[in-house]
TrEMBL record:
<keyword id="KW-0378">Hydrolase</keyword>
<dbReference type="InterPro" id="IPR036663">
    <property type="entry name" value="Fumarylacetoacetase_C_sf"/>
</dbReference>
<keyword id="KW-0479">Metal-binding</keyword>
<dbReference type="Pfam" id="PF01557">
    <property type="entry name" value="FAA_hydrolase"/>
</dbReference>
<protein>
    <submittedName>
        <fullName>Fumarylacetoacetate hydrolase family protein</fullName>
    </submittedName>
</protein>
<feature type="domain" description="Fumarylacetoacetase-like C-terminal">
    <location>
        <begin position="27"/>
        <end position="227"/>
    </location>
</feature>
<dbReference type="GO" id="GO:0016787">
    <property type="term" value="F:hydrolase activity"/>
</dbReference>
<dbReference type="InterPro" id="IPR011234">
    <property type="entry name" value="Fumarylacetoacetase-like_C"/>
</dbReference>
Amino acid sequence: MTLVLPAPPTPTVAVHGTDSRFPVRRIFCVGRNYAAHAREMGKDPDREPPFFFSKPADAVVDSGETVAYPPQTENFHYEAELVVAIGKGGHDIAEASALEHVWGYAVGNDLTRRDLQLAARDQGRPWDFGKSFDRSAIIGPIHAASAIGHPDKGAIRLAVNGTLKQDADLADLIWSVPEIISYLSHSIALAPGDLIMTGTPAGVGPLVPGDVCVVSIEGLGEISSTISERR
């Protein structure tokens, strides 16, 4: 087979404690998966079926990198998240066996152009421009589940310039990791290299140039990002 253009490089994220990298195939994101965040977004936190949106694989950014304030927004937000890395593909995965498909876990920050997201939501349009822009998925080193197990509780926090903004527990997830994997796999076949960002707690808010944003999850360490001036 001859390609008419060079194949794009495979996006990757770091693997904790090694020089290896985890290849990223797709990024799925769960919307409004903490009750308090659903309320702050003006929505009912009742346990309705989960819903998903996506980010491009090449939106990934390593911890420690600088992220430029993105174009076409005046309300650029942080969102602390637990990230699940899929190592074994499958479809129609049973909840009881869902964790067998997990390679590991990481700390993430789902950067959001909130004004664009809300405008699209209010008009019944897709969220792509609010969520799926360049360098919008900060993802820290992935910790292998074989080494740390499967975290289902523990503090998830985010601070901006040392001031705590988000402070919750993974136990507060409306839909658990096994439930998310099972539900998603009944609609879309999962594959090795897929990442799932599992939702953010309450306390989302704006970032401006010069801000340093630190996200931490108990047992997974922390990630840090600096926001620079608009490109």
